[in-house]
Amino acid sequence: MKWYPDLYFGKQAEKKKDVILRRLRWNIGQLDVYLITEASNGKDLFDIVFAGELKQKAVRRNLPRIIGIAKGYGEALELVEQIVMESIDSLGTPDVKRYLREKSKQKDFDGC
């Protein structure tokens, strides 16, 4: 699995962050956990994927980069909204791909 360097977490997912990440890495099924990924079709902003789908090898193998993790579909929608609003506030446009790319570069630069 490919991960965004500055992974987003929903409020409920943040509380169980370590457990969720461990279970994702070990391919242990989780109820009510959703992943926000880059769009698989290249046209949309994001895909919201139920973590249970990762039990299928083809889904796991072809999963785009994970940008965020949420506990519940509603929280996943809120997280997507938050990312889009951050992009608009930062760039003035909903160009989320550019925003995330610049944000990860800035984080790398700040860490030096």
TrEMBL record:
Domain of life: Bacteria
Protein name: Uncharacterized protein
Organism: Candidatus Limivivens merdigallinarum
Taxonomic lineage: Bacteria, Bacillati, Bacillota, Clostridia, Lachnospirales
